[in-house]
Amino acid sequence: MLIQEQLKEIIDNNEIVLFMKGNPDFPQCGFSGRTTQILQSYDVRFASIDVLADDAVRAGIKEYSNWPTVPQLYVRGEFVGGCDIVTQLYESGELEQILKPEA
Amino acid sequence: MNPIMNSGTTVKSVIQVKLRRFAPTHLEVVNESFMHSVPEGAESHFNITLVSEQFAGKTLVARQRMVNQVLAEELAGTIHALALHTLTPDEWFENGGQTPDSPPCLGGSKS
User: Fold this and answer.
1) Is the dihedral of CA A13, A17, A23, A29 positive or negative?
2) Is B1 part of a structural domain of the chain?
3) C-alpha pair distances (Å), B82 with each of A100, B41, B57
4) Domain presence at residue B38
């Protein structure tokens, strides 16, 4: 399967997905670490994909979203943003509505 | 090679020139590379605060896409990490004119 199809499948099949460097327990980049911490502050489950584990994923996700940096957060198939946007949405309170629209 | 680049021209100054097209009311370009394990004098990690009326009515993703497009060449080349704060003049005033800090480096890939 092509990498773009694989990425679409991951994003479609997981309600909340974070593409990051490292994993939530051992983030390998400050921006990925901060984004993880913000997500963990909510009572939500999220899938995480370590882009450092696979160069095809790392390059492919940038192409998929037309977004040059990692981390990248997807919720219900929609690209939400990277660390700066997630931080801003967290501070404004909007992120909770995005992550938990039923709440 | 970027035609604007020549000896003595820094990536930072190229970024500053390119971002003028947003007619910013406030622009800060901070080279944060020293916070990371890169060679001295590197220009790989930047924290940009860009305040422009052109962001009014646009989503955060749309705003950053506008900037990413203008800096596409740098993002594909020398820039490894870019913290980007895109605000309208009203938002900038409301948040007290503060540039958010970048998180500390946790090691990992330098490519």
Assistant:
1) positive
2) no
3) 28, 17, 23
4) yes
The answer to the question of residue B99 being in a domain is no
Which residue among A29, A52, A79 places its CB closest to the CB of B61? A79
Reduced to 3 DSSP states, what percent helix, strand and coil does chain A have, rounded to the nearest 5? Answer: 50, 20, 30
**Contact flag A22-B60 (C-beta cutoff 8 Å):** no
- Compute the nearest-CA separation of A24 from chain B (Å): 12
ipTM value of the model? 0.85
Whichever domain contains B26, its CATH number is: 3.30.300.90
Domain count, chain B: 1
On whether residue B2 sits in a domain, the answer given is no
Whether residue A46 has pLDDT greater than 60: yes
pTM of the model: 0.87
Contacts of B82 in chain A (CB under 8 A): 68-69
